[in-house]
Amino acid sequence: MRRFSPGRIALRNIIRLIPAVVILAATLDMVSCNNNNGLFPQVHGGGGSHTPTATPTTGTGALAFVTNFNDGMVSSFTRDTTTGVLKLKGQVTAGAKKGPKGVVAAPSGGFLYVANKSDGNIYEFSVNPTSGVLTPLSPPSISNGSASGPDELAINPAGTFLWVTGSSKGTITAYAVNSSTGQLTQNSKVTGLSSPFGIAADSTGAFVYVADHAAGLVYSYSVGANGALTPIGSPVFDLGSSGGTPGFIAIDPAGTFIYVTDQNAGVLSIIQTTAGALVFSSTQPTNTTGNLPLGIGFSTISANNFIFTANQGNSSMWSFLLTTPGNPAIPVEFGNGDLNVPTGLVVDPQNAFLYTTNQGTGTVSQFSLNPTCSGAPGPPCFVGSVATENPAKTGSGPFGITLAQ
Question: For the whole prediction, is pTM greater than 0.90?
């Protein structure tokens, strides 16, 4: 594995995002660890906690939204699509403190949804298309089930169905989305899992994939007419055998592979899909590390495919080159001093910038993907950071991030 200094951080080509709606990540139990507000994942056998990841958008990405776990808030930003700069426009309550985690925007950009693990609700907002200011719907939330612990959300490309993982009760709940009002109506529920949290819907809307952290399994489901999920084949262990702790999921553009981060093993798992059925392929790197890869995003650089991960263990990121589909090379590690317990990760639709949430500093970091930003091939260049709340608060605990509009 190579390390690059901040001065050598650049990509040689422009990134094109995977055309899939992917919501990744979740946290099982929040535990204190040093001075990070209880958000840093700590390993206790098969337990521990996790944090979320990237949300691609099909629009221009002129707005950004970030959940603040510790403060029970969701923050709104406008985004300059030329410079990539984020400007904080406001923050609103999204339920109980130490609760807001997963966040997803409707494909239309008109509505936003936040999962609050602490109070068990899904919070619903309308979005001002210019300022990004959020207004609670009426009613402002819907219960995901008492003590269900809703973690992460996924929405289909048509914006008609939304799914939520409930890690505390082992559930996946399906909702119908009213395209006019944005209101959610619960349709069905999958039960009997251990601790599901990472979830992704493919670009066709036909399949949904779910990572069960405690069981070490990844599940595949077909999507019914009312959004109901039906299992496809047998679940697979993310490490090829028991003992894994799968977290977050990305899908390649062709839909033939999914990629899953494993916290405790510190690896990327590659799983092949055929009409939704799963077969374990391999992991990379092969050795166990303390990097704790969590947030994940799939990108195409010219003719090459890449995966980025946010590594909480050493406050860095990984860049994997997929030499062939499903075959990632040894990752290049990159970062800078601004990264501090990076969690959420998203690439903009212009393929010009990458953003990460930093739980340790209450900020969002911006990286340029301009191939000339450092004068040498390499990972992205750090541009700057912005606080997620006003006044700035290092303990806000920014968690999920998504773009819209």
Answer: no
